[in-house]
UniProtKB/TrEMBL annotation:
Region listing for Disordered, in residue ranges: 335-357
Record field: compositional bias (Pro residues): 335-347
Family as reported in the entry's similarity comment: Belongs to the peroxidase family. Ligninase subfamily.
Disulfide pairings: C30-C296, C49-C131, C260-C325
Name of the protein: Peroxidase
Cofactor dependency: Ca(2+); heme b
Ligand binding (heme b): H187
Any Pfam family the entry gives: Peroxidase_ext
Record keywords: Calcium, Disulfide bond, Glycoprotein, Heme, Hydrogen peroxide, Iron, Metal-binding, Oxidoreductase, Peroxidase, Secreted, Signal
The protein's enzyme class: oxidoreductase
Binding residues for Ca(2+) 1: D63, G75, D77, S79
PANTHER family membership: CATALASE-PEROXIDASE, THYLAKOID LUMENAL 29 KDA PROTEIN, CHLOROPLASTIC-RELATED
Subcellular location: Secreted
Length: 357
């Protein structure tokens, strides 16, 4: 009897793992989130910084930036989920149909206790917890249901100019250029599913499963390759085979007022984590009043740690950098050994059930 009880007491924390560990520090009003956290981490993301996690992260932005002082829109309200038939038809939301297919069933499963906006930001905050090197972001809960779809034309496009994107980010979210570049750290764990017709999961850097500063390194390299035929709107030549480069990222790295900001993130993991986390939390509050929300940050687990340094991919050196910042030199970095790399595509979340197509 005693033996059984002891065994049980020791076994419980192992079985309930993540939830038990954090239960002590979680405010009572947030405790209902713990089983949802486990469900999303284990069953939606499968504890991987892969396609499902990348999609959930992108979804936060496309939901939240749907707000404008003149045109309206509810911001971080989950309208992209509820009014998916309207918002997924916007050109800038291309590719999010796959994301809604993947996360939708999890939203519906928990919809009786979690509002759409809260779900989008819980999933996005947790997606980061799967990516080594990502910061532990803050999470506020209690958003009311969305009232209407966002108006069209509020989500930046990769072929928009730096001026246009900065103006939109300022109008929609009061984001400074520094905060916009911090938010673009997200493209460290990202790829394109729709920019190059016929190609899916083409990564933006050579390490799409690690939230590291390689995106800032690799976008600054001279472009010499297209993955696929090239010539697509919003795409420019990339420096690393197998990857693709957005025209907007390319221009942010090469234009005032953002070129020196872009370069300052190179090999500056701590700056990237801190500034991304702050800007991401600000984004999560667009259209919301923080005072009406509950701080449930304690339910977000830390991401796996990452201790690596930035590098030049094999065969590339400082000589391949297209220096843009006029006031500071691009840092020198070690070159990874080996022959030139061809970065493989990111496996797609719907690959498993795609065998009928
Ligand atoms: C500000 C201007 C931005 C532009 C022009 C832009 C544009 C794009 C484009 C064109 C794609 C590829 C979509 C596809 O073909 O599937 C993409 C992917 C992605 N973006 Fe952005 N983005 C911006 C900002 C952001 C922000 C602020 C976030 C999040 C905080 C974000 C997160 C992502 C993620 C995670 C992906 C990868 C999705 C996946 O791999 O499935 N982006 N972005
Ligand atoms: C997408 O929109 C349709 C039609 O409004 C709705 O029935 C469906 O539940 C929505 N999907 C999700 C995941 O909410």
């Amino acid at each position: 009897m005693f033996k059984t009880l002891t065994a049980l007491l020791f076994a419980l924390p192992v079985v309930l793992g993540r939830a038990i560990d954090r239960r002590a520090s979680v405010p009572a009003q947030c405790a209902f989130l713990l089983p949802i956290v486990d469900d999303l981490m284990d069953n939606l993301f499968e504890n991987e910084c892969g396609d499902a996690a990348h999609g959930a992260l992108r979804l936060t932005f496309h939901d939240a930036i749907g707000i404008d002082p003149v045109l309206g829109g509810g911001g971080a309200d989950g309208s992209i989920v509820i009014f998916n038939e309207t918002e997924l038809a916007f050109e800038a939301n291309d590719g999010l149909d796959d994301v809604i297919d993947t996360v939708g069933p999890f939203f519906l499963k928990h919809a009786s206790v979690l509002s759409p906006g809260d779900f989008v930001f819980l999933a996005g905050s947790l997606s980061l917890a799967t990516c080594p090197g990502a910061p532990q972001v803050k999470l506020a809960i209690g958003r009311p249901p969305p009232k209407a779809a966002s108006p069209d034309q509020l989500v930046p496009e990769p072929f928009d100019s730096v001026e246009k994107i900065l103006a939109r980010m300022q109008a929609g979210g009061n984001f400074s250029p520094q905060e916009v570049i911090a938010l673009l750290s997200s493209h460290s764990v990202a790829g394109a599913d729709t920019v190059i017709p016929g190609f899916e999961g083409i990564p933006f850097d050579s390490t799409p499963s690690v939230f590291d500063t390689q995106i800032f390194v690799e976008v600054q390299l001279r472009g010499t390759f297209f993955t696929g035929p090239g010539g697509n709107q919003g795409e420019v030549m990339t420096g690393v085979q197998g990857t693709t480069r957005l025209e907007s990222d390319h221009n942010f790295a090469r234009s005032t007022p953002t070129d020196c900001i872009w370069q300052s993130f190179v090999n500056n993991q701590k700056q990237m984590q801190d500034q991304f986390a702050a800007a991401f939390f600000k984004m999560s509050l667009l259209g919301q009043n923080e005072n009406d929300l509950i701080d449930c940050s304690a339910v977000i687990p830390p991401a796996p740690t990452f201790t690596g340094n930035a590098f030049f991919p094999p065969s590339l050196t400082h000589g391949n950098v297209e220096q843009a910042c006029a006031t500071a030199a691009f840092p020198n970095l070690p070159t990874l050994p080996g022959p030139p790399e061809v970065v493989p595509p990111i496996p797609q979340a719907d690959d498993d059930d795609d065998d009928d197509s």
